[in-house]
Amino acid sequence: MSNLFSRQEVLKLTGLSSGQLSRLDKSGVVEPTKLGSESHPVVLYSLNQVLELRAIARLREQLSMQEIRKVVDYIREHGFDKSLSGKFLIFCNEHLYWVKSDESVETIVKLSGKNKGQVVIKAIHPIGDILSDLEKEIQRRESASSKKSNQKSPVGVS
């Protein structure tokens, strides 16, 4: 149980209020482990949940709890890992954006306000890969072209 934290420890570590923790639990955003009686359970949080709660506390500086719940709901509904920790989030002009990366594209998705879920920017990266791919293609074509010209050398020139 060394990686579990009591409710009191979590309150101190995250800066969230007791009411905020309760609402996050009831809404299913972060669901702690509950042991013992149903009326007075011992509530324990994992390290990952504490990290998630700290991320929420940081977002809380810019967004309401309702907006944070909507962000988490959007991420869940679209089949992504529901955790906010590990996601590259940007807050700009009173809106929250998520920079999603895969092998070749970074997509910025708007997570708050009107048009949430809208892809804002798709950036293909890195340019260095595009340049090296182009150079390889040029070399391949030049090599193929020179092979063709060698095969077409004149025969019986006097």
* Number of beta strands: 7
Sequence of strands across the biggest β-sheet: 4-5-6-7
Percent of residues in helices: 40-55%
Radius of gyration, Cα only, in angstroms? 27 Å
Sketch the topology as an H/E string, one letter per element: EHHEEHHEEEEH
- Helix count equals 5
* CATH fold name of the largest domain: Multidrug-efflux Transporter Regulator, Chain: A, Domain 2
Round the mean pLDDT to the nearest integer and report it.
Answer: 77
Residue windows where pLDDT falls under 50 for at least 5 positions: none
Characterize the quaternary organization of these chains: single chain
Count of folded domains: 2
CATH architecture of the largest domain: Orthogonal Bundle
The best one-word shape is elongated
Largest sheet: 4 strands, antiparallel
How far the N terminus sits from the C terminus, by CA atoms, comes to 92 Å
Per DSSP, what share of the residues sits in E-state strands of 2 or more residues? 15-25%
Reading off the top of the CATH hierarchy, the class of the largest domain is best stated as Mainly Alpha
Structural class comes to alpha+beta
